[in-house]
Amino acid sequence: MYPTVAEVLALPVVRHGGPKVVAGADGLDGRVRWVHVAEVADIAHLLKGGELVLTTGIALPDDDAALTRYVDELAGVGVSGLVVELVRHWSDALPRALVEAAEKHRLPLVTLSRETRYVTVTEAVNGRIVDAQVAELRAAAQVHETFTELTVSGAEPHVVLREVARLTGQPVVLETLSHEVLAYDACGADPVELLADWQRRSRAVRVGERTAYDPPSGRLVTVVGARGHDWGRLVLQCGEQPPHRSVVVAERAASALAVHHLLAREGDSLERQAHRGVLERLLGTPAASAELVARAAALRVPLTGHRLVGAAIRPRLTGTANPPTANSAPALLRELAEATALATRRARVCALVASVDDTSVRALLSLSPQADTDAVLHRLAREIKQARQAAPLVIAVGTPVDSAADAGRSLVEAAHVAAAALHRDREPACGYHRLEDVRLRGLLHLLADDDRLAAFAARELGPLLSRDTASGSRLLPALRHFCEQGGNKSAAAAAAHTSRTAYYQQLARIEQVLGVPLEDPESMLSLHVALLVHDVLAQSRDGDHSTE
């Protein structure tokens, strides 16, 4: 907002006087808050600091001690410079004592070799300062209006950061107090360079105030929080001392983020949102970009040089005393995601954790190549179940991979395994399911998107489904009991809670409708596989919450 001494000396009205810097050249970048004409030596007590003092020197003393005291007093109140006209008092050069005192304080001391109209100088400089102040007030009003609107509308963090970048022209990062990057806007810069080695560099930036600039790192930092509960920091990458406007923008943005955090307590935390963004990119892109790898690393989850294991955690919703409704299911998954994240911290496992669909929580574990994968997974499964003791869970993992490009495959496999494992009563001793644990059902889940699978089930079971729909019979459940009991009619009748006579009649009608003998092992196997396919496809349509 204020011009520097050098900028003032470059103005045409000052250049006309032939300015020459005779001392304190190091201070030419100091800001000029005002231009003040003063002839008397006893002037310092009337100044506030930041003034550029203009004088002809006509009333200044010739005594060396008095001149030194004059400069000491001016430097003591923080004036930005002293300009002396070499016309009326001194004509060739300034007294040595005056020059040496100015050099000692690094106070710019400038001589003018020609008579200069000081009133013209003050009008030019002070007019420029006033214009800048008006522009700053207008900008401040715009900042206030912008962030008030964002606060009232409950804007998401990425929207707030986008406005910060637009108003300041600088990259901005929102991090937790433990220096995990929740959101950022690179403002046209290279995001990989911005996020590289973020935790180490950010930990080195310590400020004692809520908003402060750290010169060694070139970062403007403001604390984010409300009601005495600080939870993050907004970091503006400036490179040099930021203008006051940038400070105002950062503080208003921090307020908007704090309000959003308070209003969004019913939704996912910012940490879960950040994790979800990375997980969705891993699931949706065939290759992980350098930016995505940098984003994950900034969340303390390295994707390179580590073994990656996808995991899916699902609540068992069928058979519970109080099954969740459509409105309560998202809240259940949010609680499960936070419990899983807590379990990963307790198990000391680096992981991205978030719910990316309506049925499960996904996690991508990043393990050291030297780690015992089975031992880590066993410990993590135990921690997750301890965190959610009141809710039955299914924990499934995908095949470990060594490349970020394959992480999505491990995540998808884990989700299929979890869906298949929902219908298994037995749980592996290790506490989690793998693809080999769910066997045929797992394979069918992996192939669920293949239209040929649906066509096979329709051919095998179509007549039976049509008969049940038309007449209200329950032949399909009867067939299911028969296959699940391995063809044992007596056991199947007991499982169906039906008398043997009535159940045998149902089996006879099934053979008649389908035109196949149930006693034939191949027929029973084909029908059993068709039933499993039917279940898998029904789960895909219904969100895996119910079966036939």
Molecular structure report:
The strands form 3 sheets. The protein has a 5-stranded mixed sheet. A 5-stranded antiparallel sheet has the order 7-6-10-9-8. Strands 12-13-11-14 form a 4-stranded antiparallel sheet, with helices on both faces. It is rod-shaped and about 130 Å long. It has 548 residues and is an alpha+beta fold. The protein has helices spanning 5-9, 12-15, 64-77, 96-104, 118-153, 157-168, 191-195, 198-203, 244-263, 270-284, 290-298, 329-346, 373-387, 407-421, 435-446, 451-471, 475-484, 489-495, 500-514, 521-542; strands at 19-23, 34-37, 51-55, 81-85, 109-112, 172-176, 181-185, 211-214, 219-226, 229-237, 307-315, 350-354, 361-367, 393-397. The protein contains 20 helices and 14 strands. The chain has 4 domains: 5-126, 3-Layer(aba) Sandwich (Udp-n-acetylmuramoylalanyl-d-glutamate--2,6- Diaminopimelate Ligase, Chain: A, domain 1), CATH 3.40.1390.20; 154-263, Beta-Lactamase (2-Layer Sandwich); 301-439, Alpha-Beta Plaits (2-Layer Sandwich); 451-542, PucR C-terminal helix-turn-helix domain (Arc Repressor Mutant, subunit A), CATH 1.10.10. β12 (350-354) and β13 form a beta hairpin.
